[in-house]
Write a structure and sequence with these properties.
149 residues, mainly alpha, globular
């Protein structure tokens, strides 16, 4: 596979690490075409921008996690601590699993995630429908926008 240069491979890892918010962004754009009022289209475009910012934040998280996994030569020490910190949201888990996969530790990452009790259909953040919902916290939105973590 001579045509898989480092640059193209990095782009493919970007998609693998950030596909949840990108898929949701495409869905928002599609929804903007469903209903005619301008406020609906504006809301969908705003959601798309938010999801694109989240995708960029997940990519930065992926790069940090990948560097930690490479440095630790597995999911231990600082890499394990960063991996645990990334477990509370679906998008972060996907970025963490992609980072471990990029370094050859996907089986270990999937074992950790399943050991924590997460299933593929757990797409909402932990405690999303409680009084302690992350949607009500500034730190969650700072993480989504890439200002923190």
């Amino acid at each position: 596979m001579q045509y898989f240069s480092g640059t193209l491979r990095d782009r493919l890892w970007f998609v693998r690490a950030t596909w949840p918010p990108l898929l949701l962004a495409v869905g928002c754009l599609a929804l903007s075409r469903v209903y005619e009022p301008i406020w609906w289209a504006g809301l969908c475009v705003a959601a798309t921008i938010l999801l694109c910012l989240d995708s960029a934040a997940r990519h930065r998280e992926f790069r940090r996690l990948r560097h930690s996994v490479r440095k630790a030569r597995g999911l231990s020490g600082e890499a394990l601590a960063r991996f645990r910190a990334a477990r509370t949201t679906w998008c972060s888990r996907r970025a963490a699993i992609a980072a471990a996969h990029a370094e050859g530790f996907e089986d270990d990452a999937r074992a950790l995630v399943s050991g924590w009790g997460y299933k593929p259909w757990h797409v909402f953040p932990d405690r999303a429908f409680s009084f302690n919902s992350p949607f009500l916290r500034a730190s969650f939105w700072q993480s989504v926008l890439g200002w923190r973590r």
